[in-house]
Design a protein that fits this description.
The protein is of the alpha+beta class. β1, α2 and β2 form a beta-alpha-beta unit. It binds zinc ion (ZN).
Length: 133
Amino acid sequence: MRVHAFHHLYQRRLAQSTKPFNARGCKVKRCQYCQASEQYCICEHQPKIKSDVAVMLLLSENEVFKPSNTGRLILDTVEEGYAYQWSRTEPDAEMLALLANEAYQPIIIFPDEYVEERSRLMEINPREYCGEK
Ligand SMILES: [Zn+2]
């Protein structure tokens, strides 16, 4: 199993927290990595997908503690992933440096029904980024 940026952020936030995060199902004994119930741990099934895509997750306060967070699953699948605690007033310097790095073309993945200015949308074929055409 590959330990990735989401797991590291989870551990950092856990060390900083002063009270337990009680999400629905908080009494379930969970795997610390996949957050599934220990008896249904999926860590050994973590895929290894070849891709040119890097993913950066920006997580709101306490979002990293939600056991159902799909961002964790996304970073389970891509080899290059980053996870940062979002702060509008104190953005992470490493995150800003990564966004300014010309080796990457940042694209925001967001439901298009919430985008007012349609000219800002682009259509992409996700299969192109996975080596498929
Ligand atoms: Zn697990």
